[in-house]
Amino acid sequence: MFYLLLSAIFLLPILWGIGEVFSRVFKIATKEFSWKIIFGIFSLSLVFTGIAFFAPLSLHVEVATIVIGLSSFFWFKGYLQFWDFFSRQKLSLWFFGGAVLFFGSFYPFILDHFGYYVPTVKWISEVGLVKGISNLDLLLGQMSVWHIFQAGFSHFSDPFLRMNGIVLLVYLVFIFEKKSWIHLVFLPILFLFSQSPSTDLPVIVFSLIILDELFKNNNRTGHLFALSVFVFAIKPTMIWLPLLVFLYLVFIVKSGFKVIVPGTFILILFFVKNIWTFGFPVFPVQYFDFDFSWKPNADLLKNSSEMAIMKTYDLQYSIDEINKFTHFDHIKNWFLLKGIKGKINIFFILTLVAFLVYSLIKKSRLVWIVFVSVLVKSVLVLLFSAQYRFFIDVFFVVFFVIFYKEISSVYAKLIFVGLSVVLAGFLSFPNILKTHLPSFQSGSFMGGFKFAQLYQPSDYEWDQFKTHQIGNLKFNWVDGYIFSFQTPIPAISPGFVQEDLNAGIFPQLKGKTLREGFIWKKINDGEKKQLQKILDDYLESGRKQ
């Protein structure tokens, strides 16, 4: 906790300083404390993305960012705004802020932390955006803008990758600055995402902030659209947000189309970034095939699509069984999944129905626009891969729209305390969750409370690995574990090597260095035997652990 506090004291002024520079350069008139920091996060993410095409986000980049941010903070007297805001707050803000630091200090437990988040940050901070990196590890083809931002501060300012905790502190500042107390209800749920650089937390926080501004008739229409596209660039399943802001601009504000220009440039940057790393404009969708030489192998893409379909049914059915489903079976089996997933699916549909009824009763143009946007997103998710993690944001949106005027500060604070106590119990004593909710797979990665986390965030370590070479690619291979989150790059997870072997291919360097990127090639019988031996040795090593 203490380390996270020092990190927050250090990073918030830097982000404010960058946001102040951004506001002045683009002539954005705002005196709001929280929005200055949000603009800092927004602008740095885009700048870091641009830099990562040409160079890694090394310690030199981080130091330069720190110098610019702190120089701006002192030059424009940002400390006066900090003092003005924090000196007027009561003890409740400090209590909530302490809760953010407490929950952010637990062990990371989201599975993607080990297989996707940490490896992505390592690649960006050590090499940069790599052309065709999805050939090495398909998941790395995502390279979210959020992980690019996180990588920019991963050497010195935030080596434990707890930037999501900083975002929650900014969210808390926004809540108290705007006195929009309903957001306090959401904080305990978001604490679940604060131990990892999960993309879910920033997109939910920023989308709720934008919703709040829309319902309060904010006139920063161009800025809100740009920020909504930025949220989409972090996580494309948030497509409803730029659609919502666009419809708001057209049907309510009736703004000219020039306000969407900044957002359009961000969208283009997003497409270019994905094409560079994945070979297609939107990961993992395989539309708009320009036949780039570094696009992934067709068999691996087919496997990815089939896995997405199987995950729709929580891996409880094989792809052959799913292909035999009738239309009725698809719906019935999705609702009747064993464990908590089926109940979440039912609750999701009931939530949409309740939102429809509310929209009919309310007869508000803005509410209808929100409903249509969320419905479009929901239909797309149901068509491609109806996993609950892709529509979790819908619950937040519907709750906000229905109750944003109904929950007082007293009730919001009581709900916050109640939910936080329950969550603290689950995270501190995870065996309770494992026993009563065995279908929650991430529960097995919860490490419980440790006194050491009061001064330093809890973190896992696994640095055992072996080195092999196939063709011109010398790669590292985790030993005795399934994820390569601390294995030196270039690292390949065992699961992807098995898929490569099944497809009869293997990644290769496109040139002589990692920066030049990756392609794939067909492998011969000797290389297949070598890969099989690597896998056999790995399984044997796992049995001995």
Provide the descriptors you would attach to this structure in a database record:
545 residues; mainly alpha; two-stranded antiparallel sheet; 4 strands; globular
Task: Explain how this protein is built.
This protein is mostly helical and 545 residues long. It has helices at 2-25, 33-52, 59-75, 78-86, 91-104, 111-126, 145-151, 163-178, 183-190, 200-215, 221-234, 240-253, 261-277, 298-312, 319-323, 327-335, 340-362, 365-384, 392-403, 409-428, 430-436, 494-503, 525-544, and strands at residues 465-470, 473-478, 505-509, 518-522. The longest helix has 24 residues, at 2-25. The protein is globular and about 70 Å long. It starts with a helix and ends with a helix. The model has no long low-confidence stretch (mean pLDDT 89).
Major sheet summary line: 2 strands, antiparallel
> Proportion of β residues?
under 5%
Q: What overall form do the CA principal axes indicate?
A: globular
> How far apart are the termini?
32 Å
Cα gyration radius (Å): 23 Å
Strand neighbour order, sheet with most strands: 1-2
Q: How many beta-strand elements?
A: 4
Number of helices: 23
Percent helix: 55-70%
Quote the average pLDDT: 89
Class per helix and strand makeup: mainly alpha
**Helix and strand sequence:** HHHHHHHHHHHHHHHHHHHHHEEHEEH
Low-confidence stretches: none
